[in-house]
Amino acid sequence: MQGMTPRALLSVYDKTGIVEFGRFLVDRGYGLLSTGGTHRTLAEAGLPVTEVSQYTGDPEILDGRVKTLHPRIHAGILARRDDAGHRSTLEESGIDPIDVVVVNLYPFFEKAGEGLNLDELVELIDIGGPTMIRAAAKNHVHVAVVTDPADYGPLSDEWREEGSLGPATRQRLAAKVFALTGAYDSAVAASLNRSGEAPDWLTAAYRKAADLRYGENPHQRAAWYVPASRAAFGALSDFEQHQGKELSFNNLRDLDGAWRAVSEYEDTACVGVKHAAPCGVALGRSPREAWEKARDGDPISIFGGIAAFNRTVDAEAAASLVEIFLEVIAAPGYTAEALDLFAKKKNLRVLSIRRPPSDLREALPVDGGVCWQDVDRLFVPETEWSVPTKTAPTPDQRRDLAFAWRAVKHVKSNGIAVARNGATIGIGSGQPNRVGAVRIALDGKDASGAVLASDAFFPFDDAVKAAAEAGIAAIIQPGGSVRDEDSIRACDQAGIAMVFTGRRHFRH
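Given the sequence above, the corresponding structure tokens read:
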């Protein structure tokens, strides 16, 4: 506006590149306003800068809680330059327009994961910063708002080449502000809501970690996001990729299922996953033994799949793993010799995942809404099992039943897992009827002496009869059907031991 000095307000926690960007703005004719540490940084660099308290005529108060919350600041940001009344108000009040706002926020995202107490967290909730950038974003037609140091260079280049920032750029920067403040508020809300109850407003804060080549199919766009706050980091938030191609959308989905499943076990375990379904689960005295038992449970399906371990993978396991084509291998770590063997297969993705599954709740999208629930982490201990049949499981069978019950929890419903000697020999997944899942799990298998786990009760005795014909020796299932007596009777007639857990594990 005529007779008024164009102003740029700079107030940043992350001071990366701020001196250079401040110098660029001075060269463009802007007078700089700043606060606290940012003012000190700019002044020490020799830039002409006015402290906000000097400009407003009011000192910072309440230990710095109130710095920029002032009419001279917000009127300068919010005034419409094309409104005669707004211009007149600024001129009568001696308020300069603020045409550039450069602000980034207190590091709540980062600090929330450092175990701070509630009082310390509250002090990291930024008030002035979000208020300024939201005001600038609302008035983005007239005000450029910059929140990311990574934007300083590209914006400077556009400014020099075009003489100013174009409308599309200003709108993009404004959209970035509202995405940032929305995520920031979500992270604060999540940190304060410690009751575990379903909130009235469901929000989540994530930042983009990578664009993916495509989604489930090549015609679908996709990206990978991780929690904005380190407090919400889970197993796949900060894995290390040692080699191989970029992870795909399907890789990430499969990895999630594989890591959740293998983390069920305290003993050395391997889980093979293909198309989001476990195809082999096994325990072993070594990673190699666990892998080979899991592989042999379904050697056809594991081809091109994922193998996940809950132990460090050594050279012996690696030598066996590289004998077939796998998309991804995941483990807490690897020996140097194992990594050398994997390096011979340059496209094989090798990941270290060091966090256990930690999500407590999950939100599952449906068209037009989201279903929210606690994550299914329940495992009913053997002390709470009941045996309704005349035959009780032997100690060896109880071990296999416990193993299979953990495995079937990760099989899509209707889900069946058949196991023997700490390894699955057949899995039936995602069938619309339970006997169909049983038949798939048993198809072509020698199930003599094996055990069978069902994620939910048997509505009829047909599944038990199919199991008996295949030689199943013991069954574990939740129980609770109105026809339980039919299944118990079929087990007694076949000499099969059956265990009720009292809890089901549907997974849709």
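Residues 385-500 form a domain with the Cytidine Deaminase; domain 2 fold (CATH 3.40.140.20). Try to locate this feature in the token string yourself.
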